[in-house]
User: Fold this.
Amino acid sequence: MSRYGVDRAMRGVVMSDAQRDRFLAEPQAFLADYALTEAERVWLAERDYGALYRMGAHPFLLFPWAQRVDRGERSTLMRRYTEAVEPHGHPDYST
Amino acid sequence: MARLVQVIGTPHHPFTFLSLRAPKVPPGVQLAMQRWAEMRAQLAAARPDVLVVVGSDHLNQYFMDNMPAFLVGKSPRAPGTFPHEHAEWAIPHYDVAVDVDLARALIERGFCHGLDLAYSDEFVMDHAFSLPLHFLWPEADIPIVPVFANTMAPPLPPPERFYQVGEALTQILEALPSDKRVCAILSGHLSLEVGGPRMIKVFDEGVLDWEFDARMADILGTGDVETLLRESAVSRLLEAGNVTTGFMTFVLAAGLAGGRPASHAEALSTGIGSMPFFRWDLGTVETP
Assistant:
């Protein structure tokens, strides 16, 4: 488990259009630059919000990241995202 | 000697500008704009020579590779905000001179007041700084000293430390051999959840934890420091929302004000979450 690596990968996508475009075009190549477990690569590439939230990804990065990589309408994304994270309560997100 | 004449506590709700662009501006946001205008007039009446601005960076400038608890910006200019915040939320840019002498003095004298403040000569201020500065001093014609506080990336300083830092900064300011009038702007928030399951409550109901918001405003209005510190324990703040720890900048405000009751303490219900508006008048302030 490497929350720091996941947070770092998400932050790049949140802050930079170029990094977001690269992630969307070639997620595996993008994620190869970060220290992540295999499971974390899959969760990020598949946009598994629930799994990322459960492992302690920083929620202040996770939702903005979801908004950047999910092409859905905002209110629809908000509900899908909430359904994904709700079963996991409030995990520790300290690194 | 320098004098701390006013302390202001403000929100930095990033949806403010998008709300103002909506075909129908929510009534609560219109009220917030009135409060900003009132705060701006009060600040002008305090005739500051310099603004000490304390806020949390939102993992934009500072990250877990090197996270300062408290950091003073001492470059000659303080630019804000980040391009993605401008693009996403229409946060205005704000570029202002830094009072480098005062910034250095806070750092140097801090060591003898129990503060090991980090410093930076290259940084960008995010919306926690540029938003309140835009509303409170749009002319950007007096210098600031930005102070970044970690309220987002645990382990966090506890509320007691925020209070101590406030007390120490006032002691340092008031011992400086200058006659500058200093005002402090503390940027923070009340109950807030981002990226957690309760985030949708604000989306649906317009408020997260009104009981918490009203209670904390009441406590700052009474100047009950013991209760403030107890109720601001990190574990309690997290019960009110997963990033409510951003309230701790107002604990620092209370420390700056020496624990005095706030002259104005309000949790404003806006429909996009509660917004804090606090003010402590500490010196001679002309009524606007």
Remarks:
- The CA atoms of residues 8 and 34 of chain A lie 8 Å apart.
- Chain A has seven helices and no strands.
- The mean pLDDT of chain A is 95.
- Residues 3-15 of chain A form the longest helix (13 residues).
